[in-house]
Amino acid sequence: MRTPLSHRLAAEALGCFLLFATVVGSGVMAERLAGGNVAIALLANTLATAAMLFVLITMLGPISGAHLNPAVSLIAALRGDLVWRALPLYALAQLGAGVLGIVAVHLMFDLPILDLSTKARAGIGQWTGELIATFGLLLTIIGTGRHRPAWVPATVALYIAAAYWFTASTSFANPAITLARSLTDSFAGIRPGDAPAFITAQLTGALAGGWVGGWLFDRGESA
Questions:
Q1: How far apart are CA 223 and CA 132, in angstroms?
Q2: Contact 99, 180 (CB under 8 A)
Q3: What's the burial of 72, exposed, middle or buried (CB within 10 Å: 0-12/13-18/19+)?
């Protein structure tokens, strides 16, 4: 029996609440404890994010697909894995609950409830990083989902952990989290004015990853 849409939206909302809270909260904690060592802070942020991704995809994947990302939902709709009428609802659930995750972090760490970021993230290097990060994320999801579906939680978590370090942008790879992170002036933040270019690069990378993934993996087994 297909999971009701209400349950799928609840799963996406719960997942984004916990994921966005993890990304921002671990960034705040890491910055406070790292003593000014940005590499250590980024490593802590990476490990927390990857661990939470593994948990959430394992737990929520059977319910909603655990997209946790409007770019992933968009490609799912293009591939026929998500009905188009559900796409805006998925995106709203992802963004709305993700923003609540940021609010929860600010409450936990005694920060202003919503505090627009002043952290500059702009330039061709950052945009290229986001395009490549999102391209690789969709390729990972499609390829692993096609041939090793049980490994999707691990491969997505490991890919994001790697992309934190090999991309200049530290791999947001998610339009909803980009918008949400503009509301926190913390380690994980991004200036609101820099978000549109990030999102454009992410959607471009997602479309490219979806196309290449379909071409490469949506075929029968070789003879």
A1: 32
A2: yes
A3: buried
Indicate the pTM of the whole model: 0.95
Q: Which tokens sit at 12?
A: 């996406």
Question: Rounded to whole angstroms, how far apart are CA atoms 200 and 149?
Answer: 29
Q: What is the DSSP string of 117-142?
A: ------SHHHHHHHHHHHHHHHHHHH
Residues in Cβ contact with 94 at an 8 Å cutoff, skipping those fewer than 6 apart = 12, 13, 16, 67, 68, 69, 70, 73, 176
Q: Tell me, what amino acid is at 136?
A: G
Q: What single-letter DSSP state applies at residue 113?
A: S
pLDDT band at 215 (very low <50, low <70, confident <90, very high): very high
Locate 46 and state its tokens: 């990476």
pLDDT of residue 124: 98
Question: Between 38-64 and 5-33, two packed helices, what is the crossing angle to 10 degrees?
Answer: 170
Give 148-167 pLDDT, tens digit per residue: 999 999 999 999 999 999 99
Residue by residue, what is the 3-state secondary structure of 40-104?
A: HHHHHHHHHHHHHHHHHHHHHHHHHCCCCCHHHHHHHHHCCCCCHHHHHHHHHHHHHHHHHHHHH
In the block, residue with structure tokens 């690069």: 201
What's the full length of the chain, in residues? Answer: 223
Structure tokens at 61: 């994947």
